[in-house]
Amino acid sequence: MTKTLQPVIVGAGPAGVRAAQTLVAHGVRPVLIDEAPRWGGQIYRQPPLGFTRNKRTLYGFEAGRAEALHSAMAGILDRVDYRPDTLVWSAEGGRLDLLGRGRMGTLPYSQLIVATGATDRVLPFPGWTLPGVYALGAAQVALKYQGCAIGSRVVIAGTGPLLYLVAYQYAKAGAKVVAVLDTASFKDKALAAPTMLRQPAVFAKGVYYLAWLRAHGVPVHQGVRLVRATGGTQVTTMRWQDGAAEHEVACDAVAFGYALRSETQLADLLGCRFSYNALQRAALPACDGAGRSSVPGVYLAGDGAGIMGADAAEWAGERAALALLVDAGRPVDAVRASELEVRLARIAAFRVGLERAFPFPQDWAANAPDDLVICRCEEITAGQLRQCASDTGAREINRLKALTRVGMGRCQGRTCGVAAAEILAQACAVAPDAVGRLRGQAPIKPLPFAVMARADGEAT
Amino acid sequence: MTPPTKERPVALLKRVAETGRTPVGFVLNGQALTALAGDTVLTAVLTHTAQLRRSEFSGEPRAGFCLMGACQDCWITTESGQRLRACDTFIEEGMRLVTGVEGHE
């Protein structure tokens, strides 16, 4: 006789949905918790009910994948305990703390698959707090989820493959893209081409977007440095440096980002061991090729365990669910499991090429002026962080947080964490791995006091 | 030099699709406005103006940043003082919102 399983999956994006589907296929009914009102994650985010654009318009080349994922979930809804609009705000001792639709609750689990996804990796420039300046992902959410452009004269800046995709999507939707400003150079991309060709379809898409933008007269500048956005009540110009020359363009919106960063707070609260990943320049929760974390019963899948992209997330979700089943003594298809691991290893090799094509701007911290706001929640500047490091000798990011409040604001370092660590490392003249990582703290997102008070009153 | 003129905020978000939805009436800083069913509070407000709130430190206007519930930049308050995260709260008929413009702090 086998024990009853009560697996819980956190996140209904590509990894979480495929994990749920795999468990269902093996006769197990998982709980699937998601912050969003509808499944799909950020990449395949579905518009609210009542919107009418088709998937081809919404997801472009990825329409087939989006449709497959959406219908996979629709097909198992009756066999999943699906809880949308629900935040996991803490986890301890086999129990999750939830906030869903204005109510607090707890949920025990026997196994947990953490598929928490990613957000934009942000390296600020002066003026980035002006209204009209958004993260690159935000520009996509506005378009896909709300049918809105973030402006009518839009600058797309930073680096990463998303830059060209968003520029293409905006131009197609009728917004004027006045400049694409890529901090990676053409040479970076040429050198990376042989590795990128490991995923020829992905490579071809990137080439297509760039060619389309050029053919439609969208100015693309590569190898630049972002200087500043200016404006009074909202952004009106963007400046950048190209070689020795500075340039400026009038705009009413800027979208920027430097690839993605993993959402790791939940893995952290669960006690997962972290290790530094030099390629992603981040401390990530460690897991084996099947997704087993260092904590028994806790599995990691998708971009929340390191940025691998949406296709890899689907495979990792399925692989983690198979690992969970095997560990619980259930029979699974071992050939399928190893095939998924081979695919994931191939993607990992491709990611090396992607990082080479769109490298992290290693000189960012050295060029950040003292008055640059790093933490937009608490408005802490690069100069304040440097001063603190030099006055107190703080050389560790949590120490810097305690002393300056950087990373202590409402976003808990999701937006400023990468930049703050880079500034500290530069101030201490050490590599970024030497300053440690911001520890996750519960609640991992702000909770309304009214709900907490109500929950307290209900407690018996 | 000409003296600086007071800037009039221009709506940040531009609707480019899905404009056939049902209108929803709401009130922003005392003014009756119209959004569309399925708009987030952020979309409803920023298709009319350029800020959601003011920074409690510098007093500068803010209009959200990540639009996916991570950055916590897009808080807005209702007339009764309730705080909403504008990017993942849907607009409702009759909602009364304030953005921290002068006279409405």
Descriptive key words:
heterodimer; A: 460 residues; alpha/beta; FAD/NAD(P)-binding domain; Arc Repressor Mutant, subunit A; 3 domains; 5-stranded parallel beta sheet; 15 helices; B: 105 residues; mainly beta; Ubiquitin-like (UB roll); two-stranded antiparallel sheet; 1 helix; globular; disordered N terminus
Would you kindly provide a written description of the structure presented here, covering whatever features stand out?
The complex is a heterodimer of chains A (about 450) and B (about 100). Chain A is α/β, with parallel strands linked by helices and about 450 residues long. Chain A is built from 15 helices and 23 strands. In chain A, a hairpin with a 4-residue loop joins β19 (about 275) and β20 (about 280-285). Chain A is globular and about 65 Å long. The mean pLDDT of chain A is about 95. With about 100 residues, chain B is mainly beta. Chain B has a single domain (about 25-100), classed as Ubiquitin-like (UB roll) (Roll). Chain B has one helix and eight strands. The model of chain B is unreliable at about 1-5 (pLDDT under 50). Chains A and B meet through β9, α4 and β10 of A and β1 and β5 of B.
Summarize the structure.
The complex is a heterodimer of chains A (460) and B (105). Chain A has 460 residues and is α/β, with parallel strands linked by helices.
Spell out the blueprint of helices and strands.
The complex is a heterodimer of chains A (460) and B (105).
Chain A: E1 7-10, H1 14-25, E2 31-33, H2 55-59, H3 63-74, E3 81-83, E4 86-92, E5 95-100, E6 103-108, E7 111-114, E8 118-120, E9 133-135, H4 136-146, E10 148-149, E11 153-159, H5 161-173, E12 176-182, H6 186-196, H7 200-215, E13 220-222, E14 225-231, E15 235-242, E16 245-250, E17 253-258, E18 260-262, H8 265-269, E19 274-277, E20 282-285, E21 298-300, H9 310-327, H10 334-357, H11 364-367, E22 373-375, E23 380-381, H12 382-392, H13 397-404, H14 417-428, H15 449-458
Parallel strand pairs in A: 1-2, 1-7, 2-3, 7-21, 9-17, 11-12, 11-17, 12-13
Antiparallel strand pairs in A: 4-5, 5-6, 8-18, 14-15, 15-16, 19-20, 22-23
Helix pairs in contact in A: 1-9, 4-5, 5-7, 6-10, 9-10, 12-14
Chain B: E1 14-15, E2 23-28, E3 31-36, H1 41-46, E4 53-54, E5 61-62, E6 75-78, E7 83-85, E8 96-98
